[in-house]
Structure formats: structure tokens, C-alpha cells
Amino acid sequence: MSDVDTAAPAAETRGFQAEVRELLKLMIHSLYSHREIFLRELISNASDANDKLRFLALATPSLNEDSGELSIRIDHDAAAGTLTVTDNGIGMNREEAVSHLGTIAKSGTAEFFGRLSGDQQKDSQLIGQFGVGFYSAFIVADRVEVLSRKAGEPASQGVHWESRAEGDFTVATVERAERGTSVVLHLKEAAKEFADGWKLRALVRRYSDHLAFPVLMRKEGGEASLDYEAVNQAKALWTRPRSEVKDDEYTEFYKHITHDGTAPLAWSHNKVEGKREYTSLLYIPSHAPFDLWQRDAARGLKLHVRRVFIMDDAEQFLPLYLRFVKGVLDSADLPLNVSRELLQQDAEVEAIRSALTKRVLELLGRVAKDEPEKFATLWKEFGQVLKEGVAEDPSNREKLLPLLRFNSTHETGEEDKTSLPDYLARMVTGQQKIFYVIAESRAAARASPYIEKLRARNVEVLLLADRVDEWIMGQVTEFDGKRFQDVSKGDLELGELADATDKAQEEAALKEHKGLLKRVKDALGDVVTEVRISRRLTESSAVLVREEHDMGAQLRRMMAATGQELPRGKPVLEINVGHPLIKRLDGVVAGEEFNELAQVIFDQAQLSEEGQVANPGEYLRRLNRLLVRLTAPAP
Ligand code: ADP
Ligand code: MG
Questions:
Q1: What is the dihedral of CA 381, 383, 385, 390, to 10 degrees?
Q2: Element (H, E) at 345
Q3: What is the rounded distance in angstroms from the CA atom of residue 121 to the CA atom of residue 33?
């Protein structure tokens, strides 16, 4: 290039960021069998660049530079073995080329690399989900050149970027009249097929039919002619009637907007007309993104106003608990110059958000009903997030509750879950409440002493073990007229579940053990408010029971983690008078031995509630004294 501005910085060689080097190596090997995806990525980038230009030109029309209609052009040269993707979009300057094509800016990059296992099969899956982007060009090319000029900058400030993927790239400032970017691939010997017109045409159509810009190729048979034609419909997919869009096209479009290589699980495409006018196309992905739990992770919809792309990640249109939903919103009512700040205050936005929330919940409901297997996947990936909606969005609770899935005493496997309507359908005669138990793990919940009696009567209990469960369950009181009951709290009133014999037995037991209850209370003093006969237990000797409104172990741990230790009420000790240990206790006369045994029983109840005792050392000494006495040789 002889006409390079002499004042311009010279060509230089730069190293790729370490992550890029890693990604390149992995990608070239593990994605080889899907190598045609590079074309989706390059076309997608060209389309993004055109979108950005059109948006910026709204405020600065001079950026249009009379360069005609926005389009994407694909050229190939079978003899030279090259393939070129050209757009007349926003372009890049030298600095941008260095940073955008030499590093990975994506959020969650660190997690992504942390999850790579070295297993090719698994890693190629992961890479697909991560979104491979520009670097996928190196799957098929051993040399890639990028020529670009940024909109609004002089022709002297073009950039020429080039790399052979061997750890570094070169950049030089060059003369370039055309606005936008050309990516030139020098195809590997084994990938020369991509310089074939017929093959290319079919592929290009697949990857571009949903795009809003014409994708131009030279007319068939006219390799030498400069006569171009559009090979796609060049109509933004969401603007087409639902009946005309094929599933494949919906899937391709999803991949284009999300950079996710895996097909979505479900979608909902709707046009709203009347007082308010907008089109939405919402997708449920088939797997959680790496950054689902990252606070600053990008989320939200791709916003368009009258088909003009406005911004990515417009988060105001869906509540936080639906942050896994991807898609496009095209509004006819919002101003073209709408900003994130404006979106925050707009009443219009609030109305759309509420309507879209309902749409998504309906879509989820439909999947749950018609495709339970898909829904199981969805729950596994996003259930934890969706659950937050119970607390976050009380107005949609009626729609949300039936979508929740629970482990229960009636289900056997981790994946085998029940819904609340299914639970109601299985309630036994006389059952008035929905029973649940919260524990540290599903196994601990299943083995919980609090549910012994219920289980013995074949009453189903929901087993909750997620970090947020206690918080969530604290927000709901009933479902379909049935109240929720934490089985570890309050006086477990079995209502009609208890039959006449139960009542008679209870009364008899109370009369018989009144003295014992008093003696135990006296032995324990005021660490408990009361000692009573349990309606919960069949196998365990005793449990601690809390007041209905008392905070459970999970919430207290959460509060403690944030530095807020809360004083708590004293528990009730419930004892199982049928248990051999309690029977033995009854036979011991009040005194040191009785007190010690009562204390051990209390400690054990605490152990089973909290997973720990207040004073482990003392507990062990006490227990050991009893064991020594027990194992003493007979006199
Ligand atoms: P992504 O598209 O997810 O951002 P890519 O690896 O595909 O990731 O692209 C990285 C960046 O390079 C883009 O974000 C963009 O800034 C820049 N880029 C790539 N292709 C083009 C292009 N044709 N025109 C302008 N910028 C581009
Ligand atoms: Mg991209």
C-alpha cells in the first residue's frame, strides 16, 4: 500500500489475549465438524454493524455518507480459494479492530474457561453455547484479513487487520473509501468447498433469511459479472406473519440474536395492535447461560422502534425473575431516540412489561401442559430463577404457583417432581393443608423427624432444600384454597386427618404422661417454653417446634451471612411418648440422671433441627457419662 498516510502509525504486530489464543485452539479442533457456523457468525456481525449504523445515523444523518442501501455482500473466488463478507455498516477504526478482534469482551468469560473440561465432545457443546463469534473464521481459514473504515472517519483512516491465528495479528492504517467492513477468508485446503457458489448460496440463505438486510450474491452462473441479487427475503423475521415463518427460521433467528448455538426450547411470537402497537418474539433457551447468577450479567430484549434497531439488552421489558428469556421487541409507539433512562420512566414501557410477563407465563404454562419433558428441562435450568417470581411478582402469583415443581415424599428421583395441582389431586381424605418441610438437602428433608407421622399416614409432604425456599414459602399462604403448612412449626393440627381413636389416644396419653411432661420441663428450665406430646413423631424421640411466625434455620443462616444475627423465640420440645427412650426416661426418678437424660434428648432434638448443638463439648461429655454407665460391667 503505497498511499498510506505517512503520519499514520506503521503496521504493527500484536499478541492475542491469552483467552483468545485458548479459544482459537479449542475451537479450531472441536468445532471442525460444525465448521459452516463461521458463516452465521460473520453474517450476524455484518447485520449487527448495519443495525448500529442505522441507529447512529438517526441522530447524525451525515454518517449515511450517500453509500446507498444497507446490505451484506458475499463474494467468493473459487480459483483463489477466498470468501469475503462485506457490510456497509458502522465499521471499525484501528483501535477498535485491535480491541474487538484481539480480546473477548463477553461477560462470563472467566466462568466459561473454568468450565472447560478437556473432553472434546463436552467442550464443543460449551463453546457452541458460549457463542463463538468472529474467531470462528479460523475454523475454515488459515489466514483472515479484515478491512474496515469507521463511519464518519476519513478514507485515510482505514484499517487492515490480518492474522494466521498463530498467537498474533498485525494491524496497519490504510486508505479505504468504502464505509464498513470486509472480512476476507483465505480458506484452508480442506474448506475450499465454501468458495463454491452453489453450496454457498444454500448456506447463506439458511443463515440470512430472517435478517432485515438484503444479502447480496453474484447472479448464478455469472461468476465474472458484477450483477448482484438478494438471496434472502430481507424482511426482519418478526415482521412476517407467524403462519409464514418456519420453525427452522425461528431457530436461526434465535441463534442470531443470542450467540447461542443451541436451539431454543420454545417461543412466542405476537403482534399487538390497537391503542398500543408492538410486536414481540420471546424465546426460552434450552440451557442456562453461564452468567445467570451474575448480578451485572446482560439481560433483556433486543429493542427496535418501527423496525430500527435501538439497543441490545433492554432490561425494562421483563421482570428480573424472567431474565433467562431472550428475544426482540419492536414498538411503534416509543420515540426513536429513546434511551435507557427514558425507558425507566415510561408508562408505556410498564404496560408492555406487564403484557410480556403474562405472555411468557402463558408460554411456560403451555409447555408445562403439552410438553412435560421439555418443561422438566426448563425447570432444571431456570426453576430457581422462576421461583423468585413468587416473591417478586405477587400480581402473577396465581399463574406462577402452578408452574413450580417440588420434590416430595411421593416422588423417588431428584428429577421426578410434582406440581401443586398434582399434589392437590393426591391429597388424602380429610387433608386440609399442603404440607412441606425445609431442610439443608433433599435427603435431610426426606429423613426429617417432622414428617414421620404424616408419612406413616401416606400424606404427601413437599421436600424443600433450595437456598431460597424458606424465603419464597414465607410469601405464600395458600394455593387453590388450601393453606401451606411448614410441618416444623406450630401445633401440627391434623384436623380431619386425625380420627376419633387418635383423639381418644391423645387424651389418654396426656392424662398418663402429665407428670413426665412437667418433670422434663423442670429439668430443662427455660430453654424451652413448653414440653408437650408430639403429633408428628413415630420413630424419633423428640423434636423442637417453632412458633408459626418464627424464622427457620435457612432464613436465619441467610441473615447471619449478611451480619444480622437475630434474637429468636424459644422452642417447644415435643416428645414421642411411644419411643423406648422416652419410656425409659419416664421410669427414672427425678434427679441428676433424669436431668442428664432429658438434656441429651433436648440436644438431639436440636441436632436434628439445626444440624448442630449449641455446645458440642458439653453434649459429648454428657452422652459419654451415660454410655459409661450403660456399658459398666454388671455388678
Ligand atoms: P459479538 O458479535 O458477540 O460481539 P464477535 O466475536 O462476533 O462477538 O465480534 C466481536 C466484536 O468485533 C463485535 O462486538 C464488534 O465490535 C466487532 N466486529 C466484528 N465484526 C464486525 C463488523 N463486520 N463490523 C463492525 N464491527 C465488527
Ligand atoms: Mg458476533
A1: 170
A2: helix 340-345
A3: 11
Long-range contacts of 445-448 (CB under 8 A, 24+ apart): 445/407, 446/409, 448/487, 448/488, 448/608
| pLDDT (tens digit per residue) in 372-399 | 999 999 999 999 999 999 999 999 999 9
Tens digits of residue pLDDT in 66-120: 878 999 999 999 999 999 999 999 999 999 999 999 988 776 677 777 777 777 7
27 lines ligand 1 (CB under 6 A): no
Question: Can you tell me which atom of ligand 1 is nearest the CA of 52?
Answer: 25
Ligand 1 proximity of 90 Cβ (cutoff 6 Å): yes
- Classify strands 72-77 and 215-218 as parallel, antiparallel or unpaired: parallel
Which residues, in sequence order, are bridge partners of residue 533? 575
Distance from chain centroid for Cα 51: 28
For ligand 1, say whether the CB of 42 is within 6 Å of any of its atoms. Answer: no
Among residues 449, 527, 528, the alpha carbon closest in space to that of 492 is found at 449
Between vectors from CA 168 to CA 5 and to CA 83, what angle results, nearest 5°?
75
Question: What is the DSSP annotation of 96-156?
Answer: HHHHHTTS---TTHHHHHHH--S-HHHHHHHHHHH--GGGGHHHHEEEEEEEEE-TTS-GG
Q: Among 264, 248, 90, 103, which Cα is nearest to 169's? A: 103
Length of the chain as a residue count: 635
Ligand nearest to the CA of 91: 1
Say if ligand 1 is within 6 A of residue 134 CB.
Answer: yes
Sign of CA dihedral 312, 314, 315, 318: negative
Cα first-last separation, the chain: 108
Return the residue whose CA atom lies nearest to atom 25 of ligand 1: 91
Cell of 610: 439445626
Cα 605 to Cα 91: distance, rounded to the nearest angstrom? 69
List residues, by chain if needed, whose CB lies under 5 Å from ion ligand 2: 45, 133
DSSP conformation letters of 363-407: HHHHHHHH-HHHHHHHHHHHHHHHHHHHHH-GGGHHHHGGG--BE
- Cα 264 from chain centre: 13
Q: Are 604 and 541 in contact (CB under 8 A)?
A: yes
Written as nine digits, the cell of 561 is 451471612
Report CA(134)–ligand 2 centroid distance (Å): 6
What is the position in ligand 1's atom list of the atom closest to the CA of 85? 23
Q: What are phi and psi of 576, to 5 degrees?
A: -100, 100
- Highest average pLDDT, of 7-21, 202-216, 267-281, 291-305, comes from 267-281
Residue recorded with cell 442501501 = 69
| Helix or strand holding residue 257 (H, E) | helix 247-258
